[in-house]
Specification:
heterodimer, A: about 140 residues, 2 domains, about 0% strand, B: about 425 residues, alpha/beta, FAD/NAD(P)-binding domain, 6-stranded mixed beta sheet, 4-stranded parallel beta sheet, 18 strands
Chain lengths: ~140, ~425
């Protein structure tokens, strides 16, 4: 059984202090406050469509067949060395690592030549478009 | 909408099994449509088709194996009742291999009675029952003189001294003398180019000739052949091997490949080219929850009716068997079997997929041998062991009973069962 002093303190916080704080210290919505705390660390919230993309991307077996159909007109050294599936792997490991693949993602010309080449049916071009949008959101 | 078109045979899957099945049915005069959605595991092939490993050979001494691939397959079938070689019978294996090699003769070399021993990227040797033209002159038992292992300066994916040191170990077993040499890549591509980029660069006029000249200048005395990384051209019509050989004066070959695999892509392209050449119509579409043979089936924007179907959808990479909590066959919803020890059954496949692996990785893994159970005519069976449909056949990795990714029989099973299923579906032997 908690001490009467502790109960009185909790009641004061719940009934007086917290409502007063909510009334006079407006810091935006919950999402805004979440972002203020986490986005600076590279951790943006995972939304339902992020989850769907992560599940689609997790079928990647890193076979490299997609790269043979990839023109990558504006290829960066990062893409040349690792290929676009590096972005998939970085994303699978940790969302906070996604900015490392930003150059590779920006280099994609969106030709969709890769989609028909994937043996495990990853919708590669839409995953790349989604990751690029996420990486821009995270960077902004 | 137009009425459903009638054809004789519908093949579902465009890897090796589906292609050989379509070609075998087509060569009997059947009208064949092949539907596939993407390249399958065949496009990841190393370039060697092992057919059947010699279970009696010591792992470190591949060249000591003197048993032919067909004989090894017979022994394997006798020892392993559930293996597709045992279920379908290996009597026509040699015929099937010769058929595949002839149909895909643009890339595949005719089989010998013995295995060819081909070098890997890491300096080991692999016995192959069937292989590509690009590897034939690198057969360790056929090289007359010194084998020059030729790497490209600055090409990180291939270490010529490592490969040479590895291959020198086979000298006492009849392998050649080996020397490593390094060549520049004259005006080809940056050294860090990916394999298919190097291969495309060599396809272009002048590139293979320049490489041949560079090779000639660097060849050691008494060289009998040169072995390159697996990048010697994507397009067989570009004759990269012959062009290098004409300038260098020695036969040239490539090693087997890792993924991404140029030999695998070359094989995939040759399959597509051959299907088009003989008049097999290829449709790119997804097939899910299809009805039975004889009934109209929707393929993309058209409808088709075929008297016989051949299911050649592969296993986990190709998508023929899916892990959705339990193991499932998505195209026709056929029952999947898995084996644990000697017990094979459908019940096992209804367990969560994660429970079908065992910790000791040398023991048989039920998950890895999961697939369809078929009768001797390659017709998938239902839970009670009866054929699902008299004109429904299955071929390749979608068949269960063998660990197709690791047991060294993958493409051999695809060729044998594809051939038998194609002939059966076309009617007559």
């Amino acid at each position: 059984m908690a001490s009467p002093g502790a109960l009185v303190y909790l009641a004061w916080r719940a009934l007086v202090a917290h409502p007063l704080k909510r009334l006079f210290r407006q810091r935006g919505s919950g999402l805004d406050r979440f972002r203020a705390a986490y986005v600076s660390e590279g951790l943006v919230p995972t939304r339902l469509d992020d989850r769907a993309v992560a599940q689609a991307a997790s079928a990647c077996i890193a076979c490299g067949l997609c790269e043979t159909g990839c023109e990558l007109a504006r290829a960066t050294p990062a893409v040349r060395a690792l290929g676009l599936h590096a972005a998939f792997r970085l994303y699978a490991r940790s969302f906070a690592d996604l900015p490392l693949a930003a150059d590779a993602l920006e280099a994609c010309a969106g030709c969709t030549g890769c989609d028909a080449l994937c043996p495990t049916r990853v919708p590669i071009s839409s995953v790349v478009a989604h990751l690029r949008a996420a990486s821009r959101r995270g960077a902004g | 909408m137009t009425a459903a078109r009638d054809v004789d045979v519908l093949v579902i899957g465009g890897g090796m099994a589906g292609a050989v099945a379509a070609l075998a049915a087509r060569s009997r005069g059947a009208a064949v449509v092949l539907v596939r959605r993407a390249p399958g595991a065949t496009a990841l092939s190393s370039g060697a088709i092992s057919v059947a490993p010699d279970l009696g050979a010591l792992p470190g001494e591949p060249l000591a194996s003197r048993r032919s691939p067909v004989e090894a397959a017979q022994r394997l079938a006798a020892a392993w009742r559930d293996h597709p070689y045992a279920v379908a019978g290996v009597e026509r294996l040699a015929e099937a291999l010769a058929f595949a090699a002839a149909e895909l003769g643009q890339v595949l070399a005719p089989p010998l009675d013995r295995r060819r021993f081909l070098a890997t990227l890491y300096g080991s040797a692999v016995g192959a029952g069937l292989c590509q033209h690009a590897t034939v002159d690198g057969d360790l038992l056929a090289v007359r003189g010194t084998l020059a292992v030729a790497g490209f300066r600055g090409h990180a994916a291939f270490d010529a001294p490592l490969v040479a040191a590895g291959l020198a170990r086979y000298r006492p077993r009849g392998g050649p003398e080996v020397r490593a040499i390094e060549l520049d890549l004259p005006a080809l591509a940056p050294g860090a180019a990916r394999p298919h980029e190097l291969a495309l660069a060599l396809d272009r006029p002048g590139a293979a000739e320049a490489l041949g000249d560079a090779l000639r200048a660097a060849l050691p005395a008494g060289a009998g052949a040169a072995l390159f990384p697996p990048v010697l051209g994507l397009d067989p019509a570009a004759r990269v091997l012959a062009r290098i050989r004409e300038r260098a004066g020695v036969p040239v070959a490539e090693t087997l490949s890792d993924v991404p695999s140029v030999p695998g892509l070359r094989l995939h392209r040759a399959i597509e080219a051959r299907l088009a050449e003989v008049g097999v119509e290829v449709v790119q579409a997804d097939v899910a929850a299809a009805p039975a043979p004889g009934e109209p089936v929707r393929l993309g924007d058209r409808e088709l009716r075929a008297a016989a179907w051949i299911l050649a959808t592969g296993r986990f990479v190709g998508g023929g068997i899916a892990r959705r909590g339990v193991l499932a066959e998505p195209a026709l919803r056929l029952p999947v079997q898995a084996a644990e020890g000697r017990d094979a059954g459908v019940q096992l496949a209804l367990r969560p997929a994660a429970s079908l692996t065992v910790r000791d990785r040398r023991r048989p893994q039920p998950l890895l041998s999961a697939g369809l159970r078929v009768d001797g005519a390659l017709r998938p069976q239902d839970e009670r062991g009866r054929p699902v449909h008299p004109r429904l056949f299955a071929a390749g990795a979608v068949l269960g009973g063998h660990e197709q990714a690791t047991d060294g029989t993958g493409l051999g099973v695809a060729i044998l069962t594809g051939f038998l299923a194609g002939r059966a579906a076309a009617g007559g032997g």
